[in-house]
């Protein structure tokens, strides 16, 4: 008696739909498994006979191939673009698994090569390196575009020195790689860069305002009067542009701004004293995809509106502020109403 069994798997992130057929094409089992190694191996161990398994190429294909290969007679990772039978008729995970098992039994699948993965770690390192390089280039381009938009000169590429790093460790389940530099990147500590009279590049500042029209009320015991106080937030001086009577024309601050702080003062501390050094102009936002698009499957109704791609503006952390002297002169040159002494 032929004990060969054909197993079709429709693999997803959380679950796997499984269909098992015998050599005559009879469906003998259907189930849903959790996408975990122990659960899958326990299911395979409960089957008898010569086992052949198939599933489509995808994100988990390499992992599942390596997991199942020592426990079954044959593993076929098939090309989903060439499975014509899957595109016909009704669509569901259970039906797809059943069709995969039927195609495997009839030897009608187009396999995708998954050989020995002796160089898999090297491939992952190479992929991580390319991803990091692309991410760094993308961020640098955005920062340079922001600075150029305010006429801030950017360092040219030929002034950067290439440094070859060695990979110490690759983070598992996270996109982090630990690198080791061949020598100290800085020959000496960075010098302090003064900006005007009371500011230093990298120095701490505070800015105040009424975000979204809100604040908090406080009653003084001396006069029993109620006062309206603003919110205070922390920031650092990341950069500056131009000179204006000994003061910076524009400051670039690192902090999280919100609506309602525009026009508010930026305060710098010198000992116990506070000085207003700039006026908040605005903050830079970027468009980010907060909900990924859901692809429409053939022969199915389009995805509902709530499942379609949605993009929102994200606070980049860059705050733009005008130097105090520049702001005062601008107000005096463009007054709203009569000037006050």
Strand and helix layout:
Elements: E1 5-11, E2 15-22, E3 27-34, H1 37-45, E4 51-56, H2 61-68, E5 74-78, H3 84-87, H4 93-105, H5 120-149, E6 166-170, E7 177-180, E8 194-195, E9 199-200, E10 204-209, E11 216-219, E12 226-229, E13 231-244, E14 247-254, E15 265-270, E16 273-291, E17 310-323, H6 324-333
Parallel strand pairs: 1-4, 4-5
Antiparallel strand pairs: 1-2, 2-3, 6-7, 8-9, 10-13, 10-15, 11-12, 13-14, 14-17, 15-16, 16-17
Written account of the structure:
- The protein is of the alpha+beta class and 341 residues long.
- It folds into three domains: 5-105, YqgF/RNase H-like domain (Nucleotidyltransferase, domain 5), CATH 3.30.420; 120-180, no CATH class; 194-333, Trypsin-like serine proteases (Thrombin, subunit H, Beta Barrel), CATH 2.40.10.10.
- It is 22% helix and 36% strand.
- The chain has six helices and 17 strands.
- Strands 10-13-14-17-16-15 form a six-stranded antiparallel barrel. A five-stranded mixed β-sheet has the order 3-2-1-4-5. The protein has a two-stranded antiparallel sheet with strand order 6-7.
- Strand 15 (265-270) and strand 16 form a beta hairpin.
- The longest helix has 30 residues, at 120-149.
- The protein is elongated and about 95 Å long.
- The termini are far apart.
- The mean pLDDT is 79.
């Amino acid at each position: 008696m032929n004990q060969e069994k054909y197993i079709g798997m429709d693999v997803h992130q959380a679950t796997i739909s499984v269909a098992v057929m015998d050599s005559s094409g009879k469906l003998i089992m259907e189930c849903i498994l959790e996408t975990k190694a122990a659960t899958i191996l326990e299911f395979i161990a409960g089957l008898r006979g010569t086992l052949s398994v198939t599933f489509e190429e995808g994100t988990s294909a390499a992992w599942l191939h390596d997991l199942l290969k020592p426990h079954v007679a044959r593993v076929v990772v098939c090309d989903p673009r060439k499975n014509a039978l899957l595109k016909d008729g009704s669509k569901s995970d259970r039906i797809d698994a059943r069709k995969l098992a039927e195609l495997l039994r009839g030897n009608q699948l187009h396999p995708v090569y998954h050989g020995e993965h002796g160089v898999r770690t090297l491939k992952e390192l190479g992929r991580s390196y390319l991803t990091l390089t692309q991410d760094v280039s993308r961020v640098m381009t955005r920062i340079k575009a922001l600075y150029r938009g305010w006429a801030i000169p950017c360092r040219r590429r030929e002034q950067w020195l290439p440094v070859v790093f060695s990979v110490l460790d690759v983070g598992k389940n996270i996109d982090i790689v630990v690198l080791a530099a061949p020598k100290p990147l800085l020959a000496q500590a960075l010098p302090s860069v003064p900006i005007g009279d009371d500011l230093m590049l990298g120095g701490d500042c505070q800015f105040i305002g009424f975000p979204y029209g809100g604040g908090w009320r406080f009653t003084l015991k001396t006069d029993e009067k109620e006062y309206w106080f603003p919110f205070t937030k922390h920031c650092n001086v990341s950069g500056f542009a131009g000179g204006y009577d000994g003061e910076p024309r524009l400051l670039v601050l690192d902090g999280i701004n919100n609506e309602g702080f525009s026009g508010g003062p930026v305060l710098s501390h010198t000992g116990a004293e506070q000085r207003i050094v700039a006026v908040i102009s605005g903050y830079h936002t970027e468009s980010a995809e907060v909900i990924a698009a859901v692809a429409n499957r053939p022969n199915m109704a389009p995805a509902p509106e709530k499942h379609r791609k949605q993009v929102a503006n994200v606070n980049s952390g860059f705050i733009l502020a005008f130097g105090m002297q520049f702001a005062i002169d601008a107000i005096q040159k463009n007054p709203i109403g009569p000037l006050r002494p």
